[in-house]
Amino acid sequence: MGRVALVTGGTRGIGAAISGSLKKSGYRVAAVYHGNDEAAAAFKSETGVAVYKWDVADYEACKAGAAVVESDIGPVEVLVNNAGITRDATLHRMRADQWQMVLDTNLGSCFNMCNVVIEKMRQSKFGRIVNIGSINGQAGQYGQVNYAAAKSGIHGFTKALAQEGAKLGITVNAVAPGYVDTDMVRAVPENVLEKIVAGIPVGRLGRAEDIARTVLFLVADEADFITGSTLSVNGGQHMY
Ligand code: NDP
């Protein structure tokens, strides 16, 4: 039987591509979503991936949700922290709730989910954790101090947890996507998007599948020597 994989935000956009690819590769997948029941139901009927609904920003909800997944499918061996939101505003206009919600959903969720599944990974001496960061956490972005701080935090979180897991067979890596054609990016005004695409050397937006392929590579059993790294998948838009 395939390993058990849990993907947060796994029913739409990048997460849907990740969950679908994992399922096709033989993993037993749980995809977590928050509010869009329609998208989740459509994804489930299209792919056969099991879907679960909870708020990854809520620690108790993560604990309860992971317990349900464990009893339905088994202990989580592969965790992809992909759920994310934006609440853009320049700092002088940003409200405290916009700051907090983005930090809690993008970064707090990594703590919540890792914390509730890592004990079983430690016991079994196997785990694969991939956290989805962002080019905007690496380079910053106007109007996104909340999102850039959260995504930048993910990169530090990844390197610290990688050190804790290294001797226990648990790898922890991050993927930093550039601009990928999903609902999140479709919300960007067309004229702004045109300028963004003009700045991507490869000449196109990323596809969700570009990120899924990278995650699949990192979670493979054979990828046990790759930990604490961030793979940038951005069409050459930001190199460092
Ligand atoms: P989408 O907005 O298309 O999908 C987001 C997914 O996350 C949905 O499944 C959503 O559930 C889920 N989600 C959001 N909040 C919560 C929550 N509190 N609890 C549980 N699930 C939640 O996003 P993308 O696919 O574009 O982005 C995926 C990840 O990639 C994010 O972390 C994003 O920051 C990152 N990223 C995206 C880039 C892009 O260009 N698209 C670029 C760089 C990074 P529901 O369907 O119920 O709303």
Please tag this protein with its features.
globular, single chain, 15% strand, Rossmann fold, alpha/beta, binds NADPH dihydro-nicotinamide-adenine-dinucleotide phosphate, 240 residues, 7-stranded parallel sheet
Chart the SSEs and their pairings:
Elements: E1 4-8, H1 13-24, E2 28-33, H2 37-47, E3 50-53, H3 59-72, E4 78-81, H4 96-124, E5 127-132, H5 135-139, H6 145-165, E6 170-177, H7 183-186, H8 190-198, H9 208-219, E7 230-233
Parallel strand pairs: 1-2, 1-4, 2-3, 4-5, 5-6, 6-7
NADPH dihydro-nicotinamide-adenine-dinucleotide phosphate is lined by residues 8-9, 11-15, 32-36, 39, 55-57, 82-85, 105-106, 132, 134-135, 177, 179-180, 182-185.
Could you give a quick summary of the protein structure above?
The chain is α/β, with parallel strands linked by helices and 240 residues long.
Widest sheet, order of strands = 3-2-1-4-5-6-7
Shape label? globular
Supply the CATH class: Alpha Beta
The N- to C-terminal Cα distance equals: 39 Å
How would you sum up this structure, described in words?
This protein has 240 residues and is of the alpha/beta class. The protein has one domain: NAD(P)-binding Rossmann-like Domain (Rossmann fold), CATH 3.40.50. The protein has nine helices and seven strands; from the N terminus they run βαβαβαβαβααβαααβ. The chain has helices spanning 13-24, 37-47, 59-72, 96-124, 135-139, 145-165, 183-186, 190-198, 208-219; strands at residues 4-8, 28-33, 50-53, 78-81, 127-132, 170-177, 230-233. Strands 3-2-1-4-5-6-7 form a seven-stranded parallel beta sheet, with helices on both faces. The longest helix has 29 residues, at 96-124. The termini are far apart.
